[in-house]
Amino acid sequence: MIISIVGGTGNLGKGLAVRLALAGYKVVVGSRMVEKAEEKAKEYSKLCGCKIEGLSNDKAIDICDVAILTIPWKSALDFVKNYRDSLSKKIVISPIVPMVKEGEFVYKPLNGSMAESIAKILGNKVVSAFQNIPAKRFSNLNETPEFDVIVCGDNEEAKAVVMEIVNSIERLRALDGGPLSNSRIVESLTPFLINLASRNGLKELGVKFV
Amino acid sequence: MIISIVGGTGNLGKGLAVRLALAGYKVVVGSRMVEKAEEKAKEYSKLCGCKIEGLSNDKAIDICDVAILTIPWKSALDFVKNYRDSLSKKIVISPIVPMVKEGEFVYKPLNGSMAESIAKILGNKVVSAFQNIPAKRFSNLNETPEFDVIVCGDNEEAKAVVMEIVNSIERLRALDGGPLSNSRIVESLTPFLINLASRNGLKELGVKFV
Asked: Is residue A154 part of a domain?
């Protein structure tokens, strides 16, 4: 199975690329600029001691079975519209959280949740996951985080595939979060976690259900 | 400091009464029926090996410095209106979550959150906490849960008192959740946790930020 991390040059993309490659998946890093994708793929390959490929976003999407959209929320819907034809054939994972800083971080949902907005464009193989992962810590392989990942989606087969992908990563546990409409509460947890950490003088926080 | 657990005859009330008494607080259990309060106080006293008093809700409220309202959400606002004069002088903790079962559990906020609705009646010494505690497990002293408790409130002094109370309980950690308006997201987590547990075949869940 090929997993493409689309726009995968930031912290979450790095963590996912390296940890999924370590789990045995064939991983592709996509970027608007192929040079950047190649450069990052080289860096990530070195980190995990395995072969991660760097491609343009177009090619990364075409080649993959599962696309993880690690792209900024502001451009997410335009991006998804641009790649509607190719993305709608794939299982698409949205870790995207629309939020703005107004003193603290505030969740700014679009039509219920970002995941649902994307599903309106791409159809029902959209699954949400990874929104609450503290990206910087996750990108650091020396960190051994133990986080829960809530997976929401309306297509049970696609959701099962995504839960398997999550569980393949060491110390992550996938939990079935129910229908895609539940993404709203999962997405809203992210600004809440950021505010909680800064208000209480804690490092970047993830969540664990105990 | 006297802490009254108002309507404290259920699982959350039991867990709080016993664990706060063990932490050294003078604890009173309140109930509509004084006989029930006395019976439960006796039971709880035996569990912790210390003296917990049982009183009518009226007296439990009058005597206390801090009142924890472990009452059903449906009658909560009527209750608070009835005891407005005495409760408005106290620090009041709301662990109350308005929710209904519609297939899964669904959060039914009133005016933003239950905590804010109560504060509209009682003023700004209302603090929300303990909403996400799995009550049955918490009432079992053989359980050694390690949970985070998010504390929200608009009166910083009252919030500091409540955080100290939370932290006095072994293996609970108080986190400053910001203003009372943030209670909405904390309250909404409770039905989400219940659904998550049942959907994934897990025991009653609490939350820990890691």
From this structure: yes
Overall domain count for chain A: 1
pLDDT digits (tens, 9 = 90+) for A109-152: 988 999 999 999 999 999 999 999 999 999 999 988 799 999 99
Size of interface A-B (CB pairs under 8 A): 66
Q: CB distance B196–A147 less than 8 Å?
A: no
CB-based contact B210 A209, cutoff 8 Å: no
The answer to whether position B210 is within a domain reads: no
The interface predicted TM-score of the complex, written ipTM, equals 0.93
Q: Structure pTM?
A: 0.95
State whether residue A71 is helix, strand or coil: coil
pLDDT at residue B8 in the model: 86
Is there a domain that residue A207 lies in? no
A208 in a structural domain = no
Q: What is the CATH number of the domain that holds A158?
A: 3.40.50.720
Domain extent for A95: 2-199
Give the tokens for residue B40. 């439960």
